Amino acid sequence: MRNSTIKRISLWSGPRNISTALMYSFAQRRDTKVFDEPLYAYYLKNSIAKNYHPGSETILETMENDGDKVVTTMLNYSEKPVLFFKNMTHHLLNLDLSFMDGLVNVILTRDPEEMLPSFAKVIKNPTMTDVGYKLHMDLVEYFEKNGIDFVVLDAKKVLLNPEGVLKQLCHYANILFDNNMLEWQPQKLDEDGVWAKYWYDNVHKSSKFSSYKPKTDPVPEHLIPLLNECKPYYNQLSQLALS
Length: 243
Known about the structure:
- With about 240 residues, the chain is of the alpha/beta class.
- The protein has a single domain (about 5-240), classed as 3-Layer(aba) Sandwich (Rossmann fold), CATH 3.40.50.300.
- The protein contains twelve helices and five strands.
- The chain has a five-stranded parallel β-sheet, sandwiched between helices.
- Helix 7 packs parallel to helix 12.
- The two termini are about 25 Å apart.
């Protein structure tokens, strides 16, 4: 995989984990083409999430719904030497994961005490399946069992040291670091998904990775059980993260 002419970087993120900022960062590279959640419609078509995700109908109408076809595109697209796929781990559902052996796999996590209040502003009653922490650890176990390389990023550590972490990530992917990854124009990307108006407002106003500031919003009371369930998975993931 590392010697492949085209580097296919797949970010496996949970929601509200600075995944969009990372996509914007990679979009600044002239050698890179970015893709925004290509498996989203497949996920909605095959889950109850279509009943409560904003913009579901439009997403299903405008994107490829067949997960296998999406994976085939990911593995065969060749417009640029570096391809960056922003994916959500929970979008995988029941897909055959063997295709990941052909990708540069990056897991992105974030402290659930900071993520859950943000996510709950749009999705009021998320479940463990929605937020992805257990699915991330399931993915780690799959990678380790099958000898597939991966790297873990923690959103907090990225924000505390964006240049340092991105340099390590580029080294892992066997591509040169590009200083342009550290800044961008405060505007929308052509590659933004149709759901951007619900989720990307802060990124559209930004011009770089924001400085890390601990969140002060309390976790909603009804999500405390979910927080307690997420914490052990996050703690395991964070110990693996680049810093």
